[in-house]
């Protein structure tokens, strides 16, 4: 009989799995990135086993020293990962046993890979969330910096992608700061549900050793333990929730990307992106393409796909752990990697945006953006809104034929649409007048934008 410690398959089986099956079931290629967290979790588990008297002091020191050495090997890129050992957990455990002998074999007492992997993934995701919160914040800062320089820069606000009313560019950018603020809240809130300890659930039912789960939780910085062992090893809702938040972040960035692409088109010409964020064409020498926003828009699809993958993975799984759950890692890791890369490049890109206020103003004039202001003026002089709406519609039609903006019509021309119009009308028909009139919390008046920026900055420093 072969010695079980020298082969990857156990005494339960008469033959090893075929190479095909081995490769099909192995996860080490992608779960090896959990290594540092796997070691952290094992050390906490070992300390607890020692405290409750299940593991001797000598075993604990051997395990601690062995794990420290393994961690160094991994960091130095010298660790040899083996597909024969299936996953990150078995690779590390085997290496530990090779280094320290029997003490290594005692580490897995009172534990299963089921609660082990759930713990590793939670530790990994918690660290990723902490990184992402900082990156979202930095992108918010970049947007606020740009908004600050454009508190009073007038641009057309659109509905149906048709010129609607004047807004300031700063106000427009702050809309994205708000979206990202909610995203940041979602990340921080979801972290609470990530930050619970599965270890102790063992395979599914708990363990017969006198373990102290709260001790392990506090060693690993968890807020508490997963209350139910079956739930602890089987649910991945915390990862799904994170991926949903990721989808929303990408959705918001995809919308902004779409706008950047439009604004950069010469027909708009509202902005320019720094050259380092654009690429040329191999055939058309004149081209400057907004590749970064396009890629971000495209990557949103893949992040949504990852969310669908996890939802579908979980659906119909009976309690408790099933191997299906091994498939949680690649979509989750890909989501984290994509988000980190996207947020980094995006903040940098927003800091390189060149604004072209003349083009924005030109577009405003062509779009009769102050038509609502004329209607509001008439209402304030006693006309019912519907009648005012009709009078202004006729004025716009007239101005369009005359190829003039409303503000360029003479008083006599304007009065032909309503005798209520007086000389003061021109104050209201200017872009500045229109902006300044929307002077309430959430409005686009420059002084409101200024106040909104101050509040947004305050939020960034306090959370
Ligand atoms: N590699 C596995 C995973 O990612 C670890 C848990 C395996 N547990 C088991 N009983 N096969 O889910």
TrEMBL record:
Enzyme Commission numbers on file: 4.3.2.1
> What keywords does the record list, in alphabetical order?
Amino-acid biosynthesis, Arginine biosynthesis, Cytoplasm, Lyase
Q: What is this protein called?
A: Argininosuccinate lyase
Q: Name one Pfam family in it.
A: ASL_C2
Q: Which GO molecular function entries does the Swiss-Prot or TrEMBL record give?
A: argininosuccinate lyase activity
Report domain Fumarate lyase N-terminal positions: 11-305
Q: What positions does the domain Argininosuccinate lyase C-terminal occupy?
A: 368-435
Instruction: State the compartments where it is located.
Output: Cytoplasm
Enzyme class, one word?
lyase
Question: Pathway of this protein?
Answer: Amino-acid biosynthesis; L-arginine biosynthesis; L-arginine from L-ornithine and carbamoyl phosphate: step 3/3
- Principal location: cytoplasm
Keyword check for Lyase, yes or no. yes
| Chain's gene name | argH
Q: Which reaction does it catalyse?
A: 2-(N(omega)-L-arginino)succinate = fumarate + L-arginine
InterPro entries from the xrefs?
Arg_succ_lyase_C, Argininosuccinate_lyase, Fumarase/histidase_N, Fumarate_lyase_CS, Fumarate_lyase_fam, Fumarate_lyase_N, L-Aspartase-like
| Family of the protein in this entry | Belongs to the lyase 1 family. Argininosuccinate lyase subfamily.
């Amino acid at each position: 009989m072969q010695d079980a410690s020298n082969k990857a398959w156990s005494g339960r089986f008469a033959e090893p799995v075929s190479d095909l099956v081995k490769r099909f079931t192995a996860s080490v290629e992608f779960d090896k990135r959990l290594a540092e967290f796997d070691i952290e979790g094992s050390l906490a588990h070992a300390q607890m086993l020692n405290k409750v008297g299940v593991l001797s002091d000598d075993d604990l020191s051997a395990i601690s020293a062995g794990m420290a050495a393994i961690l160094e090997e991994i960091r130095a890129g010298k660790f040899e990962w083996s597909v024969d050992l299936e996953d990150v957990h078995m690779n590390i455990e085997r290496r530990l046993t090779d280094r320290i002998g029997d003490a290594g074999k005692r580490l897995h007492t009172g534990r299963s890979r089921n609660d082990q992997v759930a713990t590793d993934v939670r530790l990994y995701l918690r660290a990723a969330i902490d990184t992402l919160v900082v990156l979202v914040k930095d992108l918010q800062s970049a947007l606020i910096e740009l908004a600050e320089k454009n508190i009073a820069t007038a641009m057309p606000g659109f509905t149906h992608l048709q010129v609607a009313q004047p807004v300031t560019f700063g106000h427009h950018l702050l809309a994205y700061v708000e979206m990202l603020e909610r995203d940041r809240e979602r990340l921080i809130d979801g972290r609470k549900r990530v930050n619970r300890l599965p270890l102790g659930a063992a395979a599914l039912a708990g363990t017969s050793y006198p373990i102290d789960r709260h001790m392990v939780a506090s060693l690993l910085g968890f807020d508490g333990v997963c209350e139910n062992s079956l739930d602890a090893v089987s649910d991945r809702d915390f990862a799904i929730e994170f991926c949903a938040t990721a989808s929303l972040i990408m959705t918001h960035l995809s919308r902004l990307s779409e706008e950047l692409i439009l604004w950069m088109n010469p027909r708009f010409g509202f902005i320019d992106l720094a050259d380092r964020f654009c690429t040329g064409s191999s055939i058309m020498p004149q081209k400057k393409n907004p590749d970064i926003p396009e890629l971000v828009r495209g990557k949103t699809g893949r992040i949504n796909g990852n969310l669908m993958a996890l939802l579908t993975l979980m659906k119909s799984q009976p309690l408790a752990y099933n191997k299906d759950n091994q498939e949680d890692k690649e979509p989750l890791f890909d989501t984290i990697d994509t988000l980190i890369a996207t947020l980094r490049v995006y903040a940098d890109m927003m800091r390189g945006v060149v604004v072209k206020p003349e083009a924005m103003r030109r577009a405003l004039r062509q779009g009769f953006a102050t038509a609502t202001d004329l209607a509001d003026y008439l209402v304030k002089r006693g006309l019912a809104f519907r009648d005012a709406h009709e009078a202004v519609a006729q004025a716009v039609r007239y101005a369009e034929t005359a190829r003039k903006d409303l503000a360029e019509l003479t008083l006599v021309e304007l009065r032909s649409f309503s005798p209520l119009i007086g000389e003061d009308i021109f104050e209201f028909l200017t872009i500045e007048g229109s902006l300044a009139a929307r002077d309430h919390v959430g409005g686009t008046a420059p002084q409101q934008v200024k106040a909104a920026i101050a509040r947004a900055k305050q939020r960034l420093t306090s959370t």
